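Entry 14. Structure prediction run on the chain below.
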Amino acid sequence: MAIALLILYVVLIIGLLVWGGIVGLRFKGTLKPAPPPARLPAVSTIVPARNEELNIDRCVRGLLRQDYPNLEMIFVDDDSSDATPEILARHAARDHRVKVVQTGGKPEGWNGKQWACHCGAQAATGEWFCFMDADTYAEPHLISRTVAFAEANQIDMLTLQPWYEIRGLWERIVLPAGLLPLLLVFPPDRVNNPEDDLVMANGQFILIRRPVYEAVDGHAGIRDRMMDDFSLAESVKRAGYRLFVAEGMDLMRVRLYTNLKEIWRGALKAAVEISGGWMTSVLGLLLNILINVAPVFLLAGAVLVGARPVALILSAVVLLQVLYYGTVRIAAFRAPPWSAITYPFGSLIVSIILLDGMIRVASGRDIRWKDRPVLGTPVPSVKKRLFDRKRS
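Output returned:
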């Protein structure tokens, strides 16, 4: 009986790994080449920046190297107290395409990023708005490729999943464990299906038609929502416009965080909002532990009590997971495959972050980002349910 249950457990693990592999392979290469439109529309890139002195120079340089000719670059200084304003001022003095906007302080009832994006949009003149984060780096073909793809496929809002640079030890341990499950929670095929309610977006890159942005009231319409990107995507799709998420590893790179403290603070807000209700949160927490953490502890227990058949089966499972995650880390993160041996520890940290988020929601504690409290509480309709059905 015990062996039969163990085999069912192993089948569950392998099934989820296979499913994840299929979803990842189908997502790869979704940003297919498209011919440029006959008339190149004006594009305004809008980059909110608050205390980004370590990132903003690289971000500006990437946009200045774009091969798209009809481009306006707006950088929004969101009340920075570091060298961000000086760095932006130097670039603006050298190149007339760079425009710097000041937020002038965040009004009551607004989250900081939404206000900064709104200020940038108010100053933009393009037919397309391209919202990007300050920690991104754009390859030269980013705007030309994405505009051509969006125009050719009649997409109203295009969002990309970039190459996430992971260099330090904690980045290699935690980030793959936290980012990979998102493809399973938000399968791109469903997000890209106009008949499906599921939405997701990545605020590091959102390309949206100006009339669509204005029709859904832009960031003003989601001013007090916790996650600006998911909420904007929901507004767009709910209004009947076409949302599309594509893989853009060859066009854009992002280094999210550099240490465990930054990872925890940054992931906490996403964990609270993306979890989307207690049922989904608890289910996600249990699945993550059962699939990625429990096998190692069960293997250790089997070895200690001398349960040889159980230990052999679990050893094969753990080895398979190391090989699987090693391959994924090479393909999705360009990270060394040896870092896959840390997957149980990384998954455990991700589980603790999710649990921390659930406790904060239950207790009403503040979540802070960039030294400011984040407004809003999780709204399950943004994330939808993990197993919800398509609209009839």
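The two ends are 42 Å apart (CA to CA).
Filed with the rest of this week's runs.
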